[in-house]
Design goal:
Elements: H1 29-38, E1 45-51, H2 62-71, E2 75-80, E3 93-99, E4 113-118, E5 124-125, E6 131-132, H3 135-149, E7 164-168, H4 169-174, H5 182-185, H6 197-228
Parallel strand pairs: 2-4
Antiparallel strand pairs: 1-3, 2-3, 4-7, 5-6
C-alpha cells in the first residue's frame, strides 16, 4: 500500500510530476492523478476513485490536464458509479483506470480506445440513505472490463447500449475530451410494445374505472370517520 499526499499550489508549480499540466490551486484531483502516474511502473496500471467533476471539469486548466492524459494513451476505462454508495460523502463519484503502456502485449492494443461503463443504475438500497453494489454487480463490471481488455478485437466483449461501450479516441476528441460515460454508452433499448392500440386502450380504461371506484370507496370511508369525530359538516 502506498500512502501519499500532494496538492496543487504555487509552491509546486515546478514539480516534475506535473508532466500533463499544473494542477489548480485549491483542487488536488489532478495532482493526485499525476502523482499516481508518475509512480507507475513501465507496464503498471492504477485504479482510483474521483468525484464526477473530474470527468468533465473545465475549471482552472483541469480540462487541459485531462486532455493530455487521454492523448498520452493513459486512460483505459471510466466507470460512473451509483450515488449514495459512500458513507462519508454523498458526492457522486467515478472510477478511473489508467495503464502506462496499453500496447505492451500483455493484453490487446487499446491505445485508440477507451472503455466506458455507466453503472449508475446498479446496486441496491441497504437503508434509506445508502446503496451498495451487489457481488453480481461487481462481477458484471469486472467481467466486462476484462473481456474488453483481453484478446484481439476485445475477445468476448460486445457493447451494451445504455451500459457500456468501447469508444474510439476520435470520438472522445469530438466530445472535447469529456469522459462522462453517459455521453458514449447511449440509451438502453426500449422494450417493444406489441400490444394493439385498441386492446391497450380498453385495458387502460377498465383499469382507470377500477381505480376510480376504489377511490370513491376510500372517500366514503374517510367521510364516515370524519362524521364520527364531529367534522361531518365540513365535508358536505
Amino acid at each position: 500500500m502506498l500512502l501519499c499526499l500532494t496538492s496543487g499550489g504555487e509552491r509546486l508549480t515546478e514539480e516534475k510530476r506535473w508532466k500533463y499540466g499544473i494542477p489548480p490551486k485549491g483542487n488536488a484531483n489532478f495532482a493526485w492523478v499525476q502523482h499516481i502516474v508518475h509512480h507507475l511502473a513501465p507496464s503498471g496500471t492504477a485504479g482510483f476513485v474521483l468525484a464526477n467533476g473530474s470527468m468533465s471539469s473545465a475549471q482552472s486548466g483541469e480540462d487541459e490536464i485531462r486532455k493530455n492524459l487521454i492523448e498520452a494513451g493513459l486512460v483505459d476505462c471510466i466507470v460512473a458509479l451509483p450515488d449514495q454508495i459512500f458513507y462519508s460523502t454523498h458526492i457522486p463519484a467515478c472510477l478511473w483506470f489508467l495503464a502506462r503502456d496499453r500496447s505492451n502485449g500483455q493484453f490487446r492494443n487499446r491505445q485508440e480506445d477507451t472503455m466506458f461503463i455507466d453503472a449508475r443504475g446498479l446496486g441496491r438500497m441497504v437503508d434509506r440513505t445508502h446503496r451498495e453494489l451487489t457481488d453480481g454487480d461487481i462481477t458484471r463490471i469486472v467481467d466486462i472490463y476484462h473481456a474488453w481488455r483481453s484478446g484481439e478485437d476485445g475477445g468476448d466483449y460486445s457493447d451494451v447500449p445504455g451500459f457500456c461501450r468501447s469508444a474510439p479516441l476520435d470520438e472522445v476528441r469530438k466530445h472535447g475530451h469529456i469522459l462522462t460515460p453517459g455521453r458514449y454508452v447511449g440509451a438502453p433499448p426500449q422494450e417493444e410494445d406489441d400490444e394493439p392500440f385498441e386492446e391497450k386502450m380498453k385495458r387502460l380504461v377498465i383499469q382507470l374505472c377500477e381505480q376510480q371506484a376504489d377511490s370513491a370507496k376510500l372517500d366514503s370511508k374517510i367521510a364516515k370517520k370524519l362524521e364520527t369525530l364531529g367534522f361531518g359538516e365540513l365535508i358536505k
